[in-house]
Amino acid sequence: MVLGKWLVVMAMVMAGFSGTANAGDAVAGEPVFDLCTQCHGTAGEGNPSIAAPGIAGLPEWYVAAQLRKFRNGHRGTHPKDAEGMRMRPMALTLGINADPALSGEAKQDAQDKDLDNVAAYVASLPQTKPAASLEGGDSARGQGLYAVCMACHMPDGSGNQGVGSPPLAGASDWYLFSQLKKFKAGIRGNKPEDITGVTMRGMAGTLADEQAMKDVIAYIKTLSK
Amino acid sequence: MLEHYLPAASTYASDIDGLVNLIFWIVGVWFVLCQVVFFYFIIKFRRKPGVKAQYITGEEKEQKRWISIPHALVLICDVFIVYGAVTVWVDIKQTLPEPEESTPVRVIGQQWAWTFVHAGPDGLLDTPDDIETVDELRIQVNHKYRYQLESEDVLHNFSIPVFRLKQDAIPGRVIEGWFEATQTGTFDVQCAEICGIGHGIMAARIVIEPAADHAAWMSENAPRTVLAATTP
User: Is B205 exposed, middle or buried (0-12, 13-18, 19+ CB in 10 A)?
Assistant: First the structure.
């Protein structure tokens, strides 16, 4: 009984930490998603040729959190983050079709609504299976390196909303590689407001070089089966 | 006239405005004159009972005059426009300030953001004290800047409306130009060449500040990389 109460309290604390409520309406988010399809594809499958990752089936809380980071300039504002800088204006367009008469809090609410709705729609899309494109990784060596990652991203790579860590299993290998490089170089996770990004930046620093990144990604790919 | 709608904040903004005004008045006078003549003829030669329509070949001397005289006058007007345009073009596009009296700044367009590389306190690019910013260009008032315009991906256009500056950015090329701000303030920078779905929101800000404020900003931020303003 006591344990049950503690679990409830812990769940509430964790939900508070992640800072998002799953309030989006996927049906209302579908028309908003039209803009996203230009790069991420109609099924949210992504397009490696323009560095647009697959987003279909990502958790709603994660998509919403990243969109907020882009919108608020906590991600996609580093001069070396060309892809992030391309994404940021897109996040700024959310809510652009809201009533122009709105201002202040009402405007913010309208923008938030679009953002949450499109996040819900993305989460409702069936996950796609990205083709492997990264070569030269040693999954056996990567398994040892993954020990650091699993504290947040879980042993099966399913992620953990409580600490704001997204699922890794099923993600495109090229995308994981590019993001690890960005985290390590301080191109992503460099804003103090981006709490989970700052945490991840430190974690990426534990990977010695690009080979280590490829190894750990090779292991993550084994989790996707 | 244009200044009434949009401040003129560069040394050559009034030259561009003057050129636009010159063309506006010359073309405007001819436009009004043509309309007056057309409407005069339409009314004078309107359909009247018992009068047959004439077929005019335009070969008579007094008919040809309606073409040749305006033609000569328009050519004289063209001389004024061409003289004005070439003078302004040479000053803005063909003449670069000397390196010792100006500061370089690199402007990089990409889908859909602007990166600015400021020269830092040493006044030179590609040195460790360079200051990189995204979507915010900081310059000193009453000082010449030589910009080096680049594009990371597709065609863009570096446009600062208050400077009356508009320059295409072409991938693979470094295009040089210059500007000198004449008043302090914060103004818009925009992309003026369709560059993809985010073109309409590819905007940045230019902050023009007094020399002391600008020096303080540089010493505060060099060599650390400065990031864009965080407010949406």
Answer: middle
